[in-house]
Design goal:
Rossmann fold, about 300 residues, eight-stranded mixed β-sheet, 12 helices, alpha/beta, globular
């Protein structure tokens, strides 16, 4: 697993564990003789794209971590290390990210949801909690709609603060136009000025910006454009699983709005962080996730 330099050393380096335990990939259950070691594998999504994942740990329900735009499975490294002793833990690279394939034609929420479904079913996970950061809030909602018998809860991460929020079309056009004209500069400005908090660690931002600037805009921009087409409100209305977000306190989470579409919607806030709470404050995020799991009745069981 690729991991960020200057990572939280006290949490240990999952990358070292993976180097020792992942000598070969598999297309099966991704199981290791020692469940505390992580293994990796590949499943094939609905459109033939290979989807790379890491899996390990033990305990029910499984926690399936899904990164956001321009991210990868390593974003969840600290949380995997923390929760693998009490839960089966899985982190995947969505198509176009990390170690997964980039040959997709149609970058829709529905296609990304197929990536999540393919991993869950490929690993034979019967009860799962889906954690989706940013763009993957909607992706995990759609995945849950397709697996109602398996998904026991959703944990959006700094997303779904207000499911009625939108911007005028001309503002979106200018935003996407800027990304196309100067992707490295525009994405850096977006991350540093719109998504970061005053206390966001500099090394975290430098890592995220460096990764983002090197992304392929021919893939990255359509991902965001197509995400706007997804009928999130309609999808939420069809869900039965509870939703408990873990959001930054930088923006208000409007429970009264969200509960019109998902009555079982709650939120726990992580204070003083920007858009990436699991990277900016791994310990604080982990504590929040423990509280959420306890509230959902899905703690260390």
């Amino acid at each position: 697993m690729r991991h960020m330099r200057s990572w939280n050393v006290s949490a240990g380096s999952l990358a070292l564990l993976l180097a020792a335990s992942c000598a070969a990939t598999s297309t099966g259950g991704g199981a290791s003789e020692d469940p505390m070691e992580m293994s990796e594998g590949i499943v094939i999504s609905s459109d033939g794209i290979p989807i790379h994942y890491y899996a390990g740990g033990r305990g029910d329900p499984a926690l399936v971590f899904v990164h956001g735009w321009l991210g990868n499975a390593a974003w969840w490294e600290n949380q995997i290390e923390r929760f693998k002793r009490t839960h089966r833990v899985v982190a995947l690279d969505l198509a176009g990210h990390g170690g997964s394939g980039r040959g997709r034609i149609d970058w829709t929420v529905e296609r990304f949801a197929d990536d999540v479904v393919s991993v869950v079913k490929g690993l034979g996970l019967r009860r799962v909690i889906l954690l989706g950061h940013s763009m993957s809030g909607a992706i995990t909602v759609e995945a849950a709609r397709r697996m109602p018998e398996r998904v026991v809860a959703l944990v959006p991460v700094d997303t779904l603060q207000d499911v009625e929020w939108d911007l005028p079309q001309e503002v979106w056009q200018e935003f996407f136009g800027g990304l196309r004209r100067d992707f490295p500069g525009s994405v850096e400005g977006f991350f540093r000025t719109m998504l970061a908090a005053p206390a966001s660690p500099a090394y975290v931002l430098d890592y995220l910006v460096g990764e983002a600037r090197s992304a392929d805009p021919a893939l990255a921009v359509p991902m965001l454009e197509r995400a706007r087409e997804y009928d999130l409100r309609g999808a939420l209305r069809s869900l039965r699983a509870p939703i408990h977000a873990i959001n930054s306190d930088a923006n208000e989470t409007r429970l009264e709005v969200n509960r019109k579409y998902a009555p079982r919607f709650d939120v726990t806030l992580v204070k003083g962080v920007g858009h990436w709470p699991m990277l900016e404050d791994p310990a604080g995020f982990g504590a929040a996730l423990e509280q959420v799991l306890a509230a959902l009745g899905s703690g260390a069981s």
